[in-house]
Design brief:
Helix content: 25-40%
Shape: elongated
Structural class: alpha/beta
Number of helices: 12
Strand order of the largest sheet: 3-4-5-6-9-10-11-12-13-14
Distance between the termini: 29 Å
Oligomer: single chain
Number of strands: 14
Order of helices and strands: EHHHEEEEEEEHEHEHEHHHEHEHEH
Bound molecules: S-adenosyl-L-homocysteine, iron/sulfur cluster
Radius of gyration: 21 Å
Mean pLDDT: 93
Strand content: 15-25%
Length: 355
């Protein structure tokens, strides 16, 4: 059996595990420090930890499980990683540079079952969930890449917007958030973490109940059911009314602003009429809403979709603004290296199939 990554354990879980296995409580702090502050790559490098604890850890866990297959650096500083998991599956992780810090986009599943009609990740059905260690390790790999550059840079933000539907892998997602947020470790603030969901309404309630101060983004992409169902099958199970009820619950309980993602698809959802419908949909909660307009990144297999004209995107933005809705356009990062959701992975898999 393959051993799991130690990164999957929260500090509390690690402490309990060590105690259950006859080790002293303080070992957890030492191990945690080596993992997240000194960022060792194997247990044997933990110099002040006794041999017995090291052997015990080696017998049950590994530090690193991801193999770097490809690393592409874009002109704008974006770095895209393709990792191979222990079972041979491929996932992708992206490092993006912003004026406010360094943000990493992580993958949560191998493939995605939601099957949105415009998305490269949905082309391949989910073969499994990532465990929380595999999600944390993506951050660690990027941080170690930064360490190697020697500029003393830190990952400061995380967006859970890579391959997969994070709310379909809920427990591992929460464990991941607890690990990266831990004060004794990476200490990435909850307010610096954003989770994006395609709108699994029942999980939005659960997420609200966790009390986490993590940002929530919802992939809305259309302001009415007819259109949304056409581009996102998930809208059948969770139509806009159900989604908005869950949104209201979240807003009441967290009082945190929600970001609505809206991909601009030429002649599909980019008319003035849809902008007005969207403004109407969000009017009552506009003080806690932000619409992120995303220029579509074309995907070969989804030739029916093109990116809206820049002037159309700007016009849409104007209509939202005039109607009192906070919004912005996400001009992309890393466009020259396939930075959109799942694109590098699907290209690589296609290549492997040809070979
Ligand atoms: N499954 C989650 C998170 C991953 S997708 C979700 O759907 O929210 C992250 C964001 O990228 C989503 O808003 C998704 O709709 C968007 N996206 C997917 N394919 C895209 C493409 N080709 N171009 C631009 N954005 C895309
Ligand atoms: Fe899955 Fe998100 Fe892509 Fe939809 S947009 S197929 S939910 S990864």
């Amino acid at each position: 059996m393959t051993k799991k990554s130690i990164y999957g354990l929260t500090f509390e879980q690690l402490t309990n595990w060590l105690i259950e296995n006859g080790q002293k409580r303080f070992r957890a702090e030492q191990v945690w420090d080596w993992l997240y502050k000194k960022r060792i790559r194997q247990f044997a490098d933990m110099k002040n930890v006794n041999k017995e604890t090291i052997s015990l850890l080696e017998e049950n866990f590994v530090v690193e499980t991801l193999d770097e297959e490809i690393k592409q650096v874009s002109k704008d500083g974006t770095v895209k990683f393709l990792f191979k998991l222990q079972d041979g599956n491929l996932i992708e992780t992206v490092l993006m540079r912003f004026n406010y810090g360094l943000s990493v986009c992580v993958t949560t599943q191998v493939g995605c079952n939601i099957g949105c009609t415009f998305c490269a990740s949905g082309l391949l059905r989910k073969s499994r969930d990532l465990d929380s260690g595999e999600i944390v390790e993506q951050i660690m790999k990027v941080q170690k890449h930064l360490d190697e550059q020697g500029k003393d840079e830190r990952v400061s933000h995380i967006v859970v917007m890579g391959i997969g539907e994070p709310f379909d892998n809920f427990t591992n997602l929460l464990n991941f958030i607890h690990v990266v947020n831990d004060e004794k470790g990476l200490k990435i603030g909850q307010r610096h973490i954003t989770v994006s969901t395609s709108g699994l309404a029942h999980k939005i309630y659960e997420f609200a109940d966790t009390g986490l101060q993590v940002n929530l983004a919802i992939s809305l992409h259309a302001p009415n059911n007819e259109l949304r169902t056409r581009i996102m099958k998930i809208n059948k199970a969770f139509p806009i009314e159900k989604l908005m009820k869950a949104v209201d619950y979240y807003l009441e309980n967290s009082n945190r602003r929600i970001t609505y993602e809206y991909i601009m698809l030429k002649d599909v959802n980019d008319h003035k009429e849809e902008a007005l419908q969207l403004a109407k949909l969000l009017r009552s909660k506009r003080h806690l809403s932000y619409v992120n307009l995303i220029p579509y990144n074309s995907v070969e297999e989804h030739g029916q979709y093109q990116r809206s004209e820049t002037s159309v995107i700007q016009e849409f933005h104007e209509v939202l603004k005039k109607n009192g809705i906070n919004s912005g356009v996400r001009w992309e990062n890393g466009a020259d290296i396939d930075a959109a959701c799942g694109q590098l992975r699907s290209k690589q898999i296609k290549k492997q199939k040809i070979v």
